[in-house]
Specification:
Chain A: This is Fe-S hydro-lyase tartrate dehydratase beta-type catalytic domain-containing protein. Chain A: It holds the Pfam family Fumerase_C. The structure holds 2 protein chains of 2 kinds. Chain A is α/β, with parallel strands linked by helices. Chain A has 5 helices and 7 strands. Chain A has one domain: Fe-S hydro-lyase, tartrate dehydratase beta-type, catalytic domain (fumarase, Alpha-Beta Barrel), CATH 3.20.130. In chain A, strands 2-3-4-5-7 form a 5-stranded mixed beta barrel. Chain B is an alpha/beta fold. The chains are: A alpha/beta, B alpha/beta. The interface between A and B is large, with 44 and 45 residues. The complex binds iron/sulfur cluster. Iron/sulfur cluster sits at the interface of chains B and A.
Chain lengths: 182, 280
């Protein structure tokens, strides 16, 4: 296991470059959710040179669509979804300034290359721990694409949100078996 | 002949959708807790510790175990001596899902068309499998199935000559492919035999079995045990970061098949293996 670290979001370039695959990191600050449908919209907007709902610069996207909050709760269950479904859209987002991603599972070779090129970082949160992770979310509001239901973009304020560095800015990859996928 | 009203079906399905998403059956939760005790990798143990805590928070604070509260798979066994009154059975099942996902604060994860992809906003329709059986009861099993693991499931049309070795190879290949994407530790449901669609259905049914009850057939029980051992030797581990616990259980269902075929379906489920059965 790597080192335990605390970082702030939005990220700083220097801090990201100090993170190493295997580090156990607690994130505090503002992050944004986006999954399949929101990625598709942002990708298409960027390709057409249009504005997207929030600036990607130095920001972190959390691949997550929460369950609804009960009265008195900030958010429902809120764990990561499988990152590879976003792979097609990710390099363009990284080229536009995105610096960190939180999800679960493998990334494609082209995403790994883009992470190295942009000196970004890929974090993994524990899949299936949505109740636990929701406790670290202190504020949540939908800022765009409300029609997508759970897939709308949420701006979250998180405190000590626990993640593991799966792919660091040098491309070191904590998943040992990446060679078994294509 | 016994009469069952659709109202009773609606309310039961509703309750089952909710219950399944907040508390795992004890066979599954016990295996997760045992995994925590037995895992030797540091990171693996940490992740399993989080999963144990997650189960407690889910139950005590009424937050679903996982935000992916699934597409709702429903198995319905209808006794042939039952008459259902009060409207369409299919509509009653979907109404139960609709109410359960609304009142239970569960995520709506279903799109109305696989290509146009517009959210139906009430998690309907469910995927419903009917079976007519002898008797005067209705047995309903509700399986909220997450798609992180569903996406990593596979079907193989093997040759009879591939035999047990071929089956094992197919299962291990699927588990490796799933790796971290299916939220390990996983439960593996395997369907062997039948036809293309039958083996898939068997694999899904296998996931609803109690993990503590092995197959009644000695050769299948042996295969379940051997596969569990071999899967755990792969070292994928909790979260896919390495460790000795990759699977919590392997369940196999079989059916007679054609002289020319050996269909094998591998349905992967994450540790949030939700299923609940009631008999009306
Ligand atoms: S695969 Fe299972 S544990 Fe993982 S996100 Fe989906 S439902 Fe949750």
């Amino acid at each position: 296991m790597g080192l335990e670290k605390h970082i702030v979001a939005p990220l700083s370039k220097e801090e990201v470059q100090n993170l190493k695959a295997g580090d156990y990191v607690y994130i505090t600050g503002v992050i944004y959710t986006a999954r399949d449908a929101a990625h598709k919209r942002m990708y298409e907007a960027l390709q057409k040179g249009e504005e997207i709902p929030f600036s990607l610069k130095n920001n972190v996207i959390y691949y997550m669509g929460p369950s609804p909050a009960r009265e008195g709760q900030i958010i429902g269950s809120a764990g990561p979804t499988t990152s590879s479904r976003m792979d097609k859209y990710t390099p363009l987002l990284l080229d536009t300034g995105l610096l960190g991603m939180i999800g679960k599972g493998y990334r494609s070779q082209s995403v790994i290359e883009s992470i190295i090129k942009n000196k970004a970082v890929y974090f993994v949160a524990t899949g299936g721990a949505g109740a636990l992770l929701s406790k670290c979310i202190k504020k949540s509001k939908v800022i765009a694409y409300e029609d997508l239901g759970t897939e709308a973009i949420h701006e979250l304020y998180v405190e000590n949100f626990p993640v593991i560095v799966a792919i660091d800015s040098n491309g070191n990859n904590l998943y040992e078996n990446t060679d078994i996928i294509s | 002949m016994r009469v069952i009203n659709t109202g009773e079906i609606v309310s039961n399905i509703k309750e089952m959708c909710i219950e399944a998403n907040y508390k795992l059956a004890s066979d599954v939760s016990t295996r997760i807790m045992d995994a925590y005790k037995n895992e030797t990798s540091d990171l693996g143990k940490l992740i399993l510790g989080q999963l144990c805590e997650n189960m407690n928070i889910a139950e005590n604070e009424q937050i679903p175990i996982c935000q992916d509260t699934g597409m709702t798979i429903v198995f319905v066994k209808i006794g042939q001596d039952v008459h259902i009154e009060g409207g369409s059975l299919e509509e009653a099942i979907n109404e139960g899902i609709r109410q359960g996902y609304k009142e239970g604060f569960l995520r709506k994860s279903v799109v109305s068309d696989p290509i146009i992809r517009k959210n139906t906003m009430d998690n309907t329709p469910g995927v419903i499998h009917y079976e007519i059986v002898a008797g005067d009861f209705i047995e309903i099993t509700v399986v909220p199935k997450g798609f992180g693991s569903e996406n990593m499931s596979r079907i193989y049309m093997l040759k009879p000559s591939d035999g047990v070795e071929g089956i094992k190879e197919a299962v291990l290949k699927t588990v490796k492919l799933a790796g971290p994407n299916a939220c390990p530790p996983i439960v593996v449901g395997v369907g062997i035999g039948g036809s293309f669609e039958k083996c898939a259905l068997l694999a899904k049914k296998a996931l609803t079995r109690n993990l503590d009850e092995p197959s009644n057939f000695p050769h299948i029980r042996k295969l379940e045990e051997e596969l569990l051992e071999e899967i755990n030797k792969l070292g994928i581990g909790p979260g896919g970061f390495g460790g000795k616990i990759t699977a919590l259980g392997v369940k196999i269902e079989t059916y007679p098949t054609h002289i020319a075929g050996l269909p094998v379906a591998v349905n992967i489920c994450c540790h949030v293996n939700r299923h609940i059965t009631r008999i009306l």
